[in-house]
């Protein structure tokens, strides 16, 4: 149980284009999902907290107009990197929390974004 | 705020026990977590311990929690080459539900 998927697993795009990454909880409902970014050989950096049916809460220093988050259902959150640039190249990981009574997060497999 | 620290690297021989240590500053976390990350993959929840427990054992994994010293450890018995990965400990920041991760410990298992 508690499986989270991400799609795509990797994507290469040209500078200036937008890329959408999907995060799905497959066997549970997630009122809250989180989006992280991970640089090589580093820990995870929380970008934003996404609550179903409401606006995402962004961490300090994360541009909300650059990283658009939508959490339209209890099993799906999307992260759109708009007008991507090479510095946006990174490993993006989402996680999902099955309800408000637990802090436990289950993570997706990650999406490798490379912007040329 | 919460700060979580881990040693960066541990090397052991196959069959030995591995002990990965973690210290944290915020004692309000209800749970403390251990995650495993293999190359190019997401994080796999290994185990977690409730803050009012001292120890939790799950097959080859033993978690020890010393609340007084704010020290958490993960012991892996009979370490196998498949255990080679990065291990993250994590606490929860206050009442936010946000996980705060350590830097990750790279475990290298030599045959």
How do you describe this structure in short?
With 116 residues, chain A is mainly beta.
Keywords:
heterodimer; A: 116 residues; mainly beta; 7-stranded mixed beta sheet; 4-stranded antiparallel beta sheet; B: 111 residues; 6-stranded mixed beta sheet; 5-stranded antiparallel beta sheet; 11 strands; 0% helix
Task: Please tell me about this protein's structure.
The complex is a heterodimer of chains A (116) and B (111). Chain A has no helices and eleven strands. Chain A is mainly β and 116 residues long. The N and C termini of chain B lie far apart (41 Å). In chain B, the strands form two sheets. In chain B, strands 2, 4, 5, 9, 10 and 11 form a six-stranded mixed sheet that branches. In chain B, strands 1-3-8-7-6 form a five-stranded antiparallel sheet, with no helix packed on it. The chains are: A mainly beta (116), B mainly beta (111). At the A-B interface, strand 5, strand 9 and strand 10 of A face strand 4, strand 5 and strand 10 of B.
Going by helix content, strand content and strand pairing, the class of chain B is mainly beta
> Structural class from helices and strands of chain A?
mainly beta
Shape of chain A: globular
What portion of residues of chain B belong to β-strands? Answer: over 45%
Helix-strand string of chain A: EEEEEEEEEEE
Distance between the termini of chain A: 37 Å
Strand content of chain A: over 45%
Shape of chain B: globular
Proportion of residues in helical segments of chain A: under 10%
Radius of gyration of chain A: 13 Å
Mean pLDDT of chain A: 94
What separation lies between the terminal Cα atoms of chain B? 41 Å
> What's the count of strands of chain B?
11
Number of strands of chain A: 11
Pick out the low-confidence regions of chain B. Answer: none
Query: Which range best describes the helical content of chain B: under 10%, 10-25%, 25-40%, 40-55%, 55-70% or over 70%?
Result: under 10%
